[in-house]
Amino acid sequence: MVSEPELLASVPTQLWIGGPVAATGGATFPVENPATGETLIEVADASPEDAMRALDAAVAAQDDWAATPARQRGEILRAVYERIIERTEDFALLMTLEMGKALPESRNEVRYGAEFFRWFSEEAVRIHGRYQTAPTGTGRIMVHKQPVGPCLAITPWNFPLAMGTRKIGPALAAGCTMIVKPASATPLTMLLLARLCSEAGLPDGVLSVITGRRSGAITAPLINDPRLRKLTFTGSTEVGKKLVESSAHGLLRTSMELGGNAPFVVFDDADLDAAVAGAMLAKFRNGGEACTAANRIHVQNSVLAEFTDKFVAAAQGLELGPGADPKTTLGPLVDDQQLETVSELVEDAVAKGAQVRTGGKAPGGPGYFYPATVLSDVPADSRILREEVFGPVAPIVGFDTEEQGLAAANDTQYGLVAYIYTQNLDRALRVAEGLESGMVGINRGVISDPAAPFGGVKESGFGREGGTEGIEEYLSTKYIALP
Length: 483
Ligand code: NAP
Prior knowledge:
Elements: H1 4-10, E1 15-16, E2 20-21, E3 28-33, E4 38-44, H2 48-67, H3 70-86, H4 88-99, H5 103-123, E5 130-133, E6 140-147, E7 151-154, H6 162-174, E8 178-181, H7 188-199, E9 207-209, H8 215-223, E10 230-234, H9 237-248, E11 253-257, E12 262-266, H10 272-284, E13 294-300, H11 301-316, H12 336-351, E14 355-358, E15 373-376, E16 393-399, H13 402-410, E17 417-421, H14 425-434, E18 439-442, E19 461-462, E20 475-482
Parallel strand pairs: 7-8, 7-10, 8-9, 10-11, 12-13, 12-17, 13-16, 15-16, 17-18
Antiparallel strand pairs: 1-2, 3-4, 5-6, 6-20, 11-19, 14-15
The structure holds NADP nicotinamide-adenine-dinucleotide phosphate.
Domain Aldehyde dehydrogenase: 25-480
Protein name: NAD-dependent succinate-semialdehyde dehydrogenase
Pfam families: Aldedh
């Protein structure tokens, strides 16, 4: 495994527009290590003019890339997949350094993120149209799928690789060019990916990466430029709404993967040990910094005490520490702001009467550490039941009947994912159908799969990533009428 200084010395830190390019005036900004609060490295800070250079490159490359045979596009994607897997340890360490998560979590993300290139390398050759006789018998209908054109992807920091590859894989497979604007907290992973894509034979301009701190200023001119044909965003609901508003001006096609407030519902007929294991994954995977993280744990009152005791014991087994330390199973939060938000939500619940069963207080010192925390007796008016905590805090609440459990699960403006634990098949299907969410896990604590359609309803957004649905987001449908 490469050492930390060697890795940092070798990663690209300039913008990637057909290769490494300095930002206007050589501007840079610092990337911080959340485990120490210290600067890791300086990265190019793009200007709006730099962003326009990336769009010029994407527009220039678009026609040739769309005309590249699908088999060839697929083979380049497959080569990128192989290269990411070869460099698993480098990507994993890089993500741990810039985002904080424990190394085993980073390795899981490398495998998951890389898989979007393999999956969409296989989907590239399965873009189908349709040909049929019109019902009147007076003509024929041909339906043809074409790439939408140059796309902009704006991605968050919580999965620095996978939130990019989930968009880049299908866009490139469909024949679109793409500009990625990664989160300013975690720009390094995308820059390394761009270099790998180039080494794997991706033509210049097909994928550009613009890093920068002024996200609104550098993305606005792209969104307002009619040459851009699609915006795909993963991030908070608040920013997503602003981007939908600004995209309305040119009726830009958009997909929005936004915030979540996932309920994790345990019924009295569940296998409680399996439910505890599932809740540990759904809550503490990625340090709780996942849009799919269980935000509220609803447990039927007859098994509430037993579930809570077992869950608290399991949460106490997590080892808080720097992500790069092999003993660590729970890394730091991404930054001081996230630490403040998590602390505030816990303090609010406790002030209203919640009981701290474990954790509940940041240890202080350098780095943005917060312990695995379980709260019981959480009052209904606690902010933590309404707002996305995005940290390792599990509020547990009880319910009596199935109807009450379902109503509590649906009592949110979000609708990304919901988890249920029950051994009763009728109940599982009935509740799954009644849940207002884009995804449901039945007796599963992790559901993400590159071969499945990922996405939400309500204020969790619209559009799907992964599965056979994922590539449709980057295709437009043309109807050709024939005699
Ligand atoms: P965020 O603050 O909304 O930022 C996401 C991205 O948008 C970053 O690249 C950010 O750049 C950029 N951005 C911020 N303001 C912008 C503006 N005015 N115009 C253009 N771009 C702007 O979200 P985050 O804190 O990074 O990520 C956490 C959120 O993402 C959570 O709500 C989580 O649920 C959601 N998420 C959703 C999914 C999903 O699939 N549904 C997956 C993962 C995460 P800067 O970094 O420079 O601010």
